[in-house]
UniProtKB/TrEMBL annotation:
InterPro entries: Man6P_isomerase-2_C, Mannose-6P_isomerase_type2, NTP_transferase_dom, Nucleotide-diphossugar_trans, RmlC-like_jellyroll, RmlC_Cupin_sf. PANTHER family: MANNOSE-1-PHOSPHATE GUANYLYLTRANSFERASE. This is Sugar phosphate nucleotidyltransferase. GO terms for molecular function: mannose-1-phosphate guanylyltransferase (GTP) activity. Residues 4-272 form the Nucleotidyl transferase domain. Residues 344-445 form the Mannose-6-phosphate isomerase type II C-terminal domain. GO terms for biological process: GDP-mannose biosynthetic process; polysaccharide metabolic process.
């Protein structure tokens, strides 16, 4: 069995911590048993390793999330979407990659799941059981549904056909045939569905690789990986549920009766955050059930407000009643602000200030923090100049092919079109001031850093 983990998201539901480059699965707000903080994707990958499944797992994601995934998980297998579409194109691309590039057999079972479920370890044992469910049922698709804990309006429901009286649903390869699907019913309707044996749809399903490859051929879509990448923008923007699952004549479903939660909103996420304050903050005893999550240096003090979430980051500040917090996506969904904080392979970048400094010139001040041995890519800007001030640590600046060691207090001006990069010899912090007509990521041209240059200063990786 091969696993495909879908990593996407627009970064709106957990605003302001999440943004276009740092979706909810990358927020380090979950506490491990040893007290260290980890993200949802780090937790899931750790659980996959404990279940013996990580070696057969691939992450399907957009190119804008690739660097964040490598930063948190290391060099894990990824299939990168050249453009954001929907789950059907993403899964099709992953399937073609496995078939055409990895040489996976058409008889191999492919299990697909979100990259960020909050579950206990045995959840992944049930995912592995879907291989046997496919074989036992003979169905082209096998889903995993969660036994509901209560009638929820937030989830979709899988309604099985009535089970045979002799069916043993406790075994690992137990299954039922799906009768129908219902999306986010009212609470009263959810009660009726649960009485019929309905399960929460947790977005986990499996199929034989050959099934999807045959479907792509039938739809006259490429099964050559490079060709599919080139034509990816023309793929239908539709979910796998609508395009495949709900169109199938026969679908089997297997029940998982353990702990499962979608930590997609502040009210559900804070239920799993063990401490009431993360970052610089204080709350009084009357603020029961409230949480402060603060990424800013400024203190937050919370007085007399129970059951609220106060979250602050360089992208903004949220103060919300927890039960109303799911509406944050509606409130900020139309905003197209540039992310003010990004994690990168070499460290992080935080915007400190950004405004107009003249009629035709923009100004941005940023804080760059680099890990020792990491490299800020060698690059150039056509429409802006930069000034770097080293705040702490030591680094090696490569400016138009000339190496220069820099330490705390050093300042360098980088004119427009000048090629420049930095290698951190120690942990390094620098303040960057950009001035120009275009401060966007589009005005960046990367080039190779000559390995001989790095060797001459004792550079690391």
């Amino acid at each position: 069995m091969k696993l495909v983990l879908l990593s996407g998201g627009s970064g709106k539901r957990l605003w302001p911590l999440s943004n276009e480059t740092r979706s909810k699965q990358f927020l380090k707000v979950l506490e491990r048993e040893d007290g260290a903080m980890e993200s949802m994707v780090q937790r899931v990958w750790r659980q996959l390793g404990a279940s013996g499944l990580a070696g057969d797992a691939y992450i399907a994601t957009g190119s804008n999330q690739a660097e964040m995934i490598r930063s948190q998980l290391g060099d894990v297998p990824m299939v990168l979407e050249p453009h954001r579409r929907d789950t059907f194109p993403a899964i099709a691309l992953a399937a073609v990659y496995l078939y055409a590039i990895e040489g996976v057999s058409l008889q191999e079972t492919i299990a697909v799941l979100p990259v960020d479920p909050f579950v206990e370890d045995r959840f992944f044992d049930r995912v592995a059981d879907l291989d046997r469910v496919l074989h036992a049922s003979g169905a082209p698709l096998a889903l995993m549904g969660v036994k509901p804990l209560h009638p929820s309006e937030k989830y979709g429901y899988i309604v099985p056909k009535p089970a045979a009286a002799s069916a043993d649903l406790s075994s690992s390869d137990a299954w039922q045939l799906v009768g129908r699907f219902t999306e986010k019913p009212s609470e009263e309707e959810a009660k009726r569905l649960i009485a019929e044996g309905a399960l929460w749809n947790c977005g986990v399903f499996a199929f034989r690789l050959g099934m999807l490859i045959d479907m792509l051929i039938e739809k006259q879509l490429p099964i050559n990986y490079e060709e599919l990448v080139r034509s990816y923008e023309r793929m239908p923007k539709i979910s796998f549920d609508y395009e495949v699952v709900e169109q199938a004549d026969t679908v089997a479903v297997s029940e998982y009766d353990g702990y499962w939660k979608d930590l997609g909103t502040w009210n559900t996420l804070t239920e799993e955050i063990k401490t009431g304050v993360i970052g610089n903050g204080t709350k009084c005893g009357e603020s029961t059930g409230s949480h402060i999550v603060n990424e800013l240096g400024l203190p937050i003090v919370l007085l007399g407000l129970p059951n609220v979430i106060v979250s602050a980051s360089p992208d903004g500040i949220l103060v919300a009643d927890k039960q109303k917090s799911p509406k944050v996506k509606e409130m900020v969904g139309s905003r197209d602000d540039e992310p003010m904080f990004e994690e990168r392979l070499w460290g992080s970048y935080r915007v400190l200030d950004c405004n107009v400094s003249g009629e035709s010139s923009l100004m941005k001040v940023g804080l760059i923090q680099m890990h020792a041995g990491k490299q800020l890519p060698y690059h150039a800007h056509r429409l802006r100049s930069e000034t770097w001030t080293i705040a702490s640590g030591e680094g090696a600046l490569l400016l138009d092919g000339i190496l220069r060691k820099m330490r705390a207090g050093d300042v360098v001006h980088i004119p427009a079109a000048a090629k420049h990069g930095m290698l951190a010899l120690t942990d390094l912090t620098l303040v960057e001031v950009q001035i120009g007509a275009d401060l966007s990521a589009e005005d960046v041209r990367e080039m190779a850093w000559d390995g001989k240059d790095r060797a001459s200063i004792g550079g690391g990786e």
